[in-house]
Write a structure and sequence with these properties.
Layout (H helix, E strand, L loop, with lengths): L20 H17 L14 E6 L5 H12 L3 E6 L11 H9 L5 E6 L4 H8 L3 E7 L5 H15 L6 E5 L7 H11 L3 E5 L15 E3 L2 H7 L2 E4 L15 H8 L3 H4 L7 E3 L12 H4 L6 H20 L5
Parallel strand pairs: 1-2, 1-3, 3-4, 5-6, 5-8, 6-7, 8-9
Helix pairs in contact: 1-5, 1-11, 2-11, 5-6, 5-11
């Protein structure tokens, strides 16, 4: 496996906007090689020996943080974990000073999650390290988008012409845009569905079909990526109750069985069971949710490797 810089020559991964289908396919194909690695009895390769990666998480995370740390260890990199709680940030230190002090310790890559959109881009202007966006506010979450797309491709093959619908909180999540940009680059058709109050103002400008009724979305799509209701980002009043949201937009087995389709059901997690999706669907035969989690490690291994600029035979 070689890092072919004529295919992928980016220095950072800030989002999937502007990525070509060729670039995304190269990441997915690279991840497929690393997917084989993590199925081995010894799940480790020396690819990034000597590379130090700092995981800077200014927001809570379970899957993404663990997935990046595992990916780094599988590649033999040296991970260092940082959280704002208990750090100098809590004493008033600026983000700029914090990350520049970390870089002064001679690190190579930074994985950053932050509540403010644009923070990963800002870091590219003040650091020499490679920057990977692990989620910036309600902007993008590119490695989640990539692992979702990888999981779809693994299940159904070529995504050109396939119809995918994102269901739920489109406005406050960072998963939707990364899915939309990545899927469109590969030739898929993309729809979004949810209450009008959970649709961003710009949604008509990104080339997706917009549905406000769940039955229209189910008629349209064969792949559903069900999104979490981002209660922590909402100010309230966007829908009456969680029960009513579930009644109107929840993905249930009864709803799915109205259509004679071989469904593919996804969810980036964490799941609010009984709100956006019922347990019978989340744990049922249509679900590839746990496959997404496994594939996340392979995708993040691929991203770390490609951004490192290293070549291996």
């Amino acid at each position: 496996m070689k890092n072919k810089n004529n295919v992928f020559s980016r220095r950072h991964l800030l989002g999937l906007e502007g990525f070509t289908g060729r670039e995304i396919t190269h990441i997915l194909d690279t991840a497929r090689s690393f997917r084989e690695v993590i199925e081995r009895p010894i799940k480790k390769v020396p690819t990034l020996t000597g590379i130090t990666v700092v995981n800077c998480f200014f927001e809570a995370s379970t899957r993404t943080r663990i997935s990046f740390e595992l990916a780094e260890k599988r590649l033999s990199a040296d991970p260092v974990n940082f959280s704002s709680s208990g750090s100098s940030v809590s004493k008033g230190e600026t983000l700029r000073d914090t990350v520049r002090n970390i870089e002064a310790m001679k690190i190579d890559m930074v994985v950053i999650r932050h509540a403010s959109p644009g923070v990963p881009l800002f870091l590219t202007k003040v650091l020499d390290a490679a920057i990977i966006n692990a989620g910036d506010g309600s902007h993008e979450h590119p490695t989640q988008g990539l692992l979702d797309i990888y999981s779809m491709r693994e299940k159904v093959g070529d995504l050109k012409g396939k119809k995918v619908c994102l269901i739920g909180d489109i406005k406050h999540g960072r998963v939707p845009l990364s899915n939309i940009y990545g899927l469109q680059a590969l030739g898929a058709e993309v729809g979004v569905c949810g209450p009008p109050t959970l649709m961003p103002r710009f949604i008509d400008d990104v080339g997706v079909k917009v549905f406000t009724r769940i039955d229209e979305a189910l008629e349209y799509a064969d792949i559903l990526n069900v999104l979490r209701i981002q209660l922590e980002r909402q100010k309230g009043g966007l829908f009456p109750t969680l029960r009513e949201y579930h009644d109107q937009y929840g993905i249930t087995m009864a709803r799915l069985e109205r259509y004679k389709k071989d469904w593919v059901i996804m969810h980036p997690g964490p799941i609010n069971r009984g709100v956006e999706i019922e347990t019978a669907v989340a744990d049922g035969d249509y679900s590839i949710i746990l496959d997404q989690v496994t594939n996340g490690v392979a995708i993040r291994m691929a991203v770390l490797y490609l951004l490192s600029g290293r070549e291996i035979d």
